[in-house]
Amino acid sequence: LKDKTLPNGLHLRRVSVPFGVIGMVYEARPNVTFDVFSLCFKSGNACVLKGGKDAQASCETGVSLIKDVLRQHDIDPSAVELLPFTHEATGEMLTAVGYIDLCIPRGGKRLIQFVRDNAKVPVIETGAGVVHCYFDQDGDLDMGRRIILNAKTRRPSVCNALDCIIIHSSRLSDLPQLVAPLSEKGVVLHADERAYQALQGHYPINPTSMQATSLLTLVTPDKADETWGAEWLSLQAGVKTVDSLDEALDHIAQYGSGHSESIVTNNKAAAATFEAMVDAACVYVNAPTSFTDGAQFGLGAEIGISTQKLGA
Asked: I want to staple 77 with a disulfide (CB 3.0 to 4.6 A). Which of 13, 67, 205, 277 is the partner?
């Protein structure tokens, strides 16, 4: 990865080496079986998999297929192993010091929290995605429409999908146009009082529609924390009104998960402040958060996005 000779003549080389045995705990997504094995195999790591019980048959079939192919090529089939689908097996993996070199949880907030609280082996924490897009007072309306539509509806069930639109109060008159494309996709908006008033009668596009009431809800004070802190993983989003960039940054700091955050603005100073102050793995200016993906970045496949501050 790096090669240089110091002035004193010492020759240094940085070489990439495998971790060793990677343990992966994941939920009911059997495709992760193939994703994890292929990445580990190509990078020289063995892997121990612990899938979700709901996908037991698919995971077992997948690992059986992988082992068959490994045997055909005279490769040790123990390069991949599948643990029993029990909570006890998860506990064994997390405390297998000397056997598991690294554990990666792939799933929702509860799973990640459980792994973090119980692991005695090193863990790469892949954070849940509570993702925001701030439409600034100097945001371009057409650009904002396209960015918000893409970030929310491209793949609603993944961690980089948009969860909350933050809008500057001076642009509330543009809010119906900003979110109009979302109504065509059936996105339910959970709006604070000011945003709700701006959208009432204008969302969805045809307010006489049968869906008119079901696509727009008012966020009452007792529902605020659960709304703003929600990772929807579906065609739903919050709409929060702020009076300044600082207020938007405060909201993101309180409710964001450190995954991906975006600002839509033509103000260079606002963009620079947002980039400097937002604490997230990925920060975007005038681009959708759906780019948070190894393949989209040209880095190849990946397993989750690390939201820790540890170096690579």
From this structure: 67
Q: What global pTM score does this model have?
A: 0.84
DSSP state of 132: E
- The three-class DSSP label of residue 116 is helix
What torsion, rounded to 10 degrees, do the Cα atoms 108, 110, 114, 115 define? 10
- State how far the alpha carbon of 251 is from the alpha carbons of 118, 124, 232, 241, 286, in Å: 30, 26, 17, 10, 19
Q: Where are the alpha helices (DSSP H) in the chain?
A: 31-42, 56-72, 87-94, 109-118, 141-153, 175-184, 193-199, 224-228, 245-255, 268-277
135: helix, coil or strand? strand
User: Do residues 203 and 189 touch, judged by C-beta distance below 8 A?
Assistant: yes
Strands of the 282-285 sheet, one edge to the other = 216-218, 188-191, 236-242, 164-168, 132-135, 260-264, 282-285
H or E element in which residue 24 lies: strand 21-26
Q: What would the pLDDT profile of 104-149 be if each residue is shown by its tens digit?
A: 998 877 888 899 899 999 998 877 789 999 999 999 999 999 999 9
Per residue in 56-94, pLDDT tens? 999 999 999 999 999 999 999 999 999 999 989 999 999
pLDDT of residue 307: 78
